[in-house]
Amino acid sequence: MHGARQNGRCIANFYTAIFLVIDKTSPSVATALADVHDGATIMIGGFGGAGMPVALVDGLIAQGARELTIVANNAGNGETGIAALLKAGRVGKVICSFPRQVDSYVFDALYRSGRVALELVPQGNLAERMRAAGAGIGGFFTRVSFGTELAKGKEVREIDGEMHVFETPLRADFALIKAELGDRWGNLTYRKSTRNFGPLMAMAATTTIASVHEVVPLGDINPEHVITPGIFVQRVVEVPRLEMAA
Fold first, then answer.
1. What was the pLDDT predicted at 100?
2. How far apart are CA 140 and CA 129, in angstroms?
3. pLDDT recorded at residue 16
4. How much is the pLDDT for 21?
5. What is the pLDDT at residue 11?
6. Distances 146 to 157, 162, 212 between C-alpha atoms, Å
7. In the chain, what are the domain boundaries?
8. Who contacts 106 (Cβ-Cβ below 8 Å, separation ≥6)?
9. Most exposed among 69, 107, 120, 121, judged by the fewest C-beta atoms under 10 Å?
10. H or E segment and range at residue 2
């Protein structure tokens, strides 16, 4: 009985130590991005401007990593965010669903001149490939893209009388996402549509870096309201709302 009580105290002390020690907050954007290396594959959250982690992308430009592969919904708008990263000459390849839009002139010029490669992925496939990576699934079959240029070189199989194309998981070295609130364990909540690809990217990346409007004390976020659990987040950096895009 004495041994059981002692073991119980040891276990309680162990978890108390974990509770006190874990702190994923970074003092600055520069610190959070310090180990991003040349040639890294980086997922960047956002649907247009909604949820775009502009402060992190600007920090990545200042950090200096080159020949990056960027995974995102689109290839940048105007000259901010991903477009600014492209303009700075830091990107070698873009994997996205919507490379062209009214204000994608930075990407357009780079692609037409052969300075940036493009892998076009239908939006649903993009999301599902990230989800597959996070869930440890080796791939999936989908009807999307069958019979098009996007299916060339991929395995094709007939399932229930319809042709399907095999898609592989999409992983990344880093994910840069934007959330509303976070705590020092990395638990995150989002604000409305800014959530978009953030949770999937956090699961699919080796290192997830989240900018948040506010780092709150442990317990302030109702567990039922956590969207991205801290197990998928390695670093949290607080960026005042005025410095963050909508």
1. 85
2. 8
3. 59
4. 83
5. 63
6. 10, 10, 40
7. 2-121+170-243
8. 76, 78, 79, 83, 86, 87
9. 120
10. helix 2-21
Of 125, 64, 116, nearest to 93 by C-alpha is 116
| Whole-number average pLDDT of the chain | 92
Angstrom CA distances, 54 to 50, 87, 148, stand at 10, 15, 34
In the chain, the percentage of residues whose pLDDT exceeds 90 is 84
Tell me the two tokens of residue 34.
């310090």
Residue with token string 């839009």: 101
Dihedral sign, Cα of residue 110, residue 205, residue 221, residue 239 = negative
CA distance 167 to 158: 14
CA distance 107 to 97: 13
Q: Are 87 and 64 in contact (CB under 8 A)?
A: no
Q: How far apart are CA 186 and CA 238, in angstroms?
A: 12
List the structure tokens of 87: 């303009």
Query: Do 105 and 87 form a contact (C-beta atoms < 8 A)?
Result: no
* Chain length of the chain: 246
Q: Is the pLDDT of residue 168 over 60?
A: yes
> For the domain with range 2-121+170-243, which CATH number is right: 2.60.40.10, 3.90.1200.10, 3.30.1330.60, 3.40.1080.10?
3.40.1080.10
Cα separation, 76 vs 129, in Å, equals: 21
The Cα 10–Cα 6 span in angstroms is 6
